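Sequence in, structure out.
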Amino acid sequence: MKREQIPGFAAVALISVVVGHGIAAAQAQTAPPPDASAGLARQVTLSPAEQLAQSETYLARMDGARTSVRRQLETARSQRDVVKTLCLDDKLNQIDVAIRSARERRQGLELAVNRRDVDLSNHEFTILTVLRQRTEQLTAEANQCIGQEAGFIGDSAVTATIDPNLPKDDPSEYPVSQIIIEPPACSSCFR
């Protein structure tokens, strides 16, 4: 390599380092990607003992929701409403699963409180809160269960009235036309 080319290479290397550093700095200043758990993570501000007491309230509320849906199911069964019975039975089964899981989490919370493990108690309480919210959602869905439509037994009558101001001609029919269509002249014929 010639000595005259060395300063040129050094200048190119210096420029590429500066530009590369500028690009890296610009990339570092971009906003971080959004958090996948946005809106789900929430700092628990209750003490472990308060969480334990609150969990009892949650379980009582969940049991009340189960009782309400069970009453609706019994009513639908007594009315022999198959569609509503199936819907309510499904919601009740999901509520029962959530309550069983909540009871297990409540036991885990109690063990964490006894061991004074704040992180584990926050975790168990957060899951209990989610299960309570799921039970409330299922209860709302159970209230939306629609049964069979009421049918009317007997004769039915249909009455039609026609507006006298409507035109007498039927506008949906095409008019008869006398247009004669001639085929186009040959445009690509060679003579």
